[in-house]
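Q: My hope is that you can spare some time for a protein that puzzles me. Underneath my words sits a plain record pairing an amino acid chain with its backbone structure tokens. Those tokens are not coordinates but codes from a learned vocabulary of shapes. Thank you; the sequence and its tokens follow:
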Amino acid sequence: MSCANHRLHTGRCLCIHSSLQFIDLAIQSLLLNHGLLPCPLSLMPESPPPGLVKTLNGIEKVRNVLRSIFRSKYRRSIREVVICVGPNPHRVNHAYKVPISICDADDSHDENCGSPCSELSDVEKRRINRQLFLVLF
């Protein structure tokens, strides 16, 4: 991932599934960094404060759209995801580009990923979150 000319390393080749998880972690880190969320989504209470409901609904819509795109038959066409942060979609204050390069193992097909591919482990997620924190703060 590139963020203001910073490179984050996952330590392995990412498949389409782990790339989506990587994007999700980046979005959550950026939302926290820019003060749009008071805490990580995983720590959000069951009934969030009323002023946060609209924001959380918007975040969930974005996550669902990304999930559907990354699972579509066009997933191999994805080259980059740009995360824009601003007061509204027409006034972007910050744009973060995340290049997507899908691992192409010999046994990888359009229907499924190859054998070295897997979702991010908890250890990998923590490492990525730590790198995002250091880059963004």
